[in-house]
UniProtKB/TrEMBL annotation:
Cross-referenced CDD domains: GT4_PimA-like
Pfam (any one): Glyco_trans_1_4
GO molecular function annotations of the record: glycosyltransferase activity
GO biological processes: lipopolysaccharide biosynthetic process
Organism: Paenibacillus antarcticus
Name of the protein: Glycosyl transferase family 1
This protein's record includes keyword Transferase: yes
Length: 389
């Protein structure tokens, strides 16, 4: 069986949420015996070494340019989609059993006459209309706010168009799947949890008193989360002996001067680190204080796999299936958030129990391979996928 995977970003290295999900799925499909061809229409071209890694799992890679211009903002199609219009002209020179779209951004491939719509599956990373509306709430820049609102409205229209061409959906968020399925019960839709990226889960030593946040530092909703923590939680935490707030993420070479207005005592920032392993290893717990967003915040799932219990806002854990006070601690007010951190600091055995419970939940419920295999088998009962690894 042969599948074409269409991406808006090169999937490797898997250094942010979307790439983690896509790269994990590519490896799972390869393990299940699929022949995979990859089409990528992104802003940055991959390095030869990154291409070499991906070629271990895929047979063919086609790259096309993402071309952005200001006039794209005037188009009825979202700018994120219009800039990938070259996908309409990619030479799809083979037949595929399925075409997997990694998100709404690659919609133009559906206007490629060589793609068979009946065999298209859409991976829903976010409800983009909701996501861009959330980004608009997160930014204080008036121009950015206007852009995000425009994209949100355009994605609402685009999603209606896509439903005329696609009836197979795989949702990363259980919440978004349930909402969609109630509205569109005849579609072949399913909740497909993100892939587990660690063969062996790690565990904190619970000695360092490091509070960790890892997320893309160029994204306004992540910046908003960090600022909220620095304004409301960090001053209270400075009373704790040996406490440090560790922030890490890809800035895409954008300035981090937005941090300068806050007390950065005991704050350590790792701008675009090559590896996150030591940051996780030295952490005591992970915080996800996001105020706005959509879909599943993979940073929460990644932190648990890497050995850190998580304290999150309601937004930061939605769609994961994790249960408050059983797998994760949830707090939306500064007082509650600080209280949860203090509780885990004072009771490391409680932190360890919380981590063990959350890791057990992920092992049980996040079997990406089995869910994906069952879904595709259900679409084509004449073919049963066989695991080759």
């Amino acid at each position: 069986m042969k599948m074409l995977v269409v991406c808006s970003d090169f999937p490797y290295p898997a250094d942010h949420g979307g790439r983690v999900d896509t790269w994990g799925r590519i490896k799972v499909l390869a393990e299940l015996g699929w022949t995979i061809h990859l089409v990528v229409c992104g802003k940055q071209m991959p390095t030869p070494s990154d291409m070499k890694v991906v070629y271990r799992y895929v047979e063919d890679i086609k790259l096309c340019d993402r071309r952005s211009k200001l006039t794209d903002m005037l188009h009825v199609v979202p700018m994120q989609v219009q800039s990938r219009n070259e996908l309409r002209h990619v030479n799809i020179d083979e037949d595929y059993d399925y075409v997997l779209l990694e998100g709404d951004y690659v919609y133009p491939i559906l206007n490629n006459p060589l793609v068979k719509h009946a065999n298209v599956i859409l991976r829903v990373h976010n409800d983009e209309a909701v996501y861009f509306k959330a980004l608009a709430r997160s930014t204080h820049n008036v121009i950015h706010k206007l852009y995000y609102h425009m994209e949100s409205s355009k994605f609402t229209i685009l999603q209606k168009k896509m439903r005329k061409k696609v009836d197979k959906y795989l949702f990363i968020s259980n919440n978004e799947f349930e909402i969609f399925h109630r509205l569109h019960p005849t579609t072949h839709s399913l909740f497909l949890p993100p892939p587990i990226t660690k063969e062996t889960f790690l565990e904190s030593t619970f000695e360092s008193k490091h509070v960790v946040f890892i997320g893309s530092l160029f994204m306004p909703n992540n910046r908003e989360a960090i600022v909220w923590y620095l304004e409301h939680i960090h001053p209270l935490m400075l009373k704790e002996p040996d406490y440090k707030f560790i922030v890490a993420g890809n800035s895409r070479k954008q300035s981090l001067s937005w941090l300068d207005s806050y007390d950065l005592t005991n704050v350590i920032v790792h701008d675009t680190p090559e590896s996150l392993d030591d940051i996780y290893k030295q952490g005591y717990l992970f915080v996800n204080p996001m105020r706005n967003g959509a879909g599943v915040k993979l940073k929460t799932i990644e932190a648990i796999q890497n050995g850190l219990p998580v304290i999150s806002t309601s937004i930061g854990y939605e769609g994961t299936g994790l249960v408050d006070n059983e797998h994760i601690m949830v707090a939306d007010s500064p007082e509650e958030f600080y209280g949860r951190i203090k509780l885990l600091f004072d009771h490391p055995e409680r932190a360890r129990t919380l981590l063990e419970s959350s890791q057990g939940f992920i092992r049980t419920h996040y079997d990406h391979k089995e869910v994906l295999k069952g879904y595709i088998n259900s679409l084509n009962t004449s073919y049963q996928m066989k695991q080759v690894l």
